[in-house]
Amino acid sequence: MDTFNATLIVPSKEYELLRRRIHSNVKEFSYYVNSELESLDRKEKGTVRRIKEMKNMLVEHFRSLLKDITDLADVDDHSTWREQESENLSRLIQNRLDDLQNPLDCSIAKQLVCNLNKVYGFSYKFHHLVYCFIVAYETQRMLVLTPMKYNNVWQKFFFTLNGTCPLVMNKSISQWTGNQTDQIVQLPIIDDVHPKPRLLPPVLPDDFASRLNVLHGDPMVWWIGQFLKFIFLPQPTISNIFDECAEKMKFQNPTVGVHVRRADKINKDAGFHALEEYMIHVEEYYKLKELSGQIKKKRIYLATDEPNLFAEAKRKYPEYEIICNENISKTAFKKYDLRKSLIDLIIDIHFLSLSDYLVCTFSSQVCRIAYALMNSLHPDASERYASLDDIYYFGGQSHRLNEAVLQHNSNRPQEIDLQIGDQIFVDGNRWNGYSKGKNLRTHKTGLYPTFKAISKIESAIVHAYSNSTA
């Protein structure tokens, strides 16, 4: 472990976990009360005015509490430690990945072949690539990509993952069995892999899982973000494009990134959400910041595949400075210029990740990529988002696991009972104070108050790395 400055104040594990739990519980309390008041508003029309007054006062209480909790992290003398710990852990992972991709002797290097021709769009390939890379990390194999439909375009955008070694030729390629010692192994897509890799998200490597749990509110996101950070290393051509776009748009912080996915996703993988639904969270973010006098101009980076949305946003929200690349939505899904479409998508991911807060739907892979990248840029960005549908997930992952810390006796048919210590497979957050999941003790599925459970971190022991400390 790096030697800390003698004056560096290191917080206890209990303090960091409790601070984030209070922050989360305040938000869950607000979700619950707002939902119940809205329900009353619909049923009791004679009390509309009083309910509206209560809601307004509740929102003010909520913002004040959230501001105080957020400020606590700025004045508790632990911010320097958080920055240093994040830097140390990130450097540890980046060094290990670099060592994997640049073995000393290519002729004997063990390799894991990742086939990107079987999967679909660019964002799906990004997630598939992360999955392959995680398995390569677990098995300490160099990751090698098979030639793909737009391999040349990919390598023009990013520094190639193949590092100093190409695929070893004149060697047989064996299929994944989970524990073979063959020099070259090919990995199937995540839905077909058997046996399952030990590090399949949300499982973390055991040698730093406990440290990451103290540092970060959602360790799985940080872990995935580290692989994206390594993969998403742009060639100078793309870096120049990023700089030109930033200058043209006058991109600066603070900015809220808003990603609205429609087109081919609506009524297939996601429901329709009006612009107003996104803007509720955008406005709440800026109102919270205004309590500290931190906001002079309200900005949005709007990314969407719906061309008409830009004009709608500017018409309905003239008090916002809306920056975007309107050409992106016009070329989305068009195959006649693959290079342009990919560049436009990468631009959106880049600027969404650079935003201070992200509002989107986690059913969108583009949004999840941007969010994971955002978490590679901060010690802990696990609260810098609002999703209109899913919680964050990694496609093909094992279930997220929660553990009950408070007892709950169900009082509605759709709820489940909880005893302290119960393990719960999480299905999702309803953003109304309740989550849905399966109690592994009772095998019943239903709703439970979100604040009565905490995330349970799972880890697995993997082969020791030479640079095993940070």
From TrEMBL:
Q: Which UniProt keywords apply?
A: Glycosyltransferase, Transferase
Region: Important for donor substrate binding; residue ranges are: 261-262
Q: Report the InterPro entries cross-referenced here.
A: Fut8_N_cat (IPR045573), Fut8_SH3 (IPR035653), GT23_dom (IPR027350), SH3-like_dom_sf (IPR036028)
Q: Name one GO molecular function term.
A: alpha-(1->6)-fucosyltransferase activity
Q: Name one GO biological process term.
A: protein N-linked glycosylation
Source domain of life: Eukaryota
Q: Which residues form the GT23 domain?
A: 108-388
Q: Name one Pfam family in it.
A: FUT8_N_cat
Q: What family is this protein classified in?
A: Belongs to the glycosyltransferase 23 family.
Under what name is this protein listed?
Alpha-(1,6)-fucosyltransferase-like isoform X4
> Whose protein is this, by species?
Sipha flava
The opening ranks of the lineage are: Eukaryota, Metazoa, Ecdysozoa, Arthropoda, Hexapoda
**Encoding gene (name):** LOC112690589
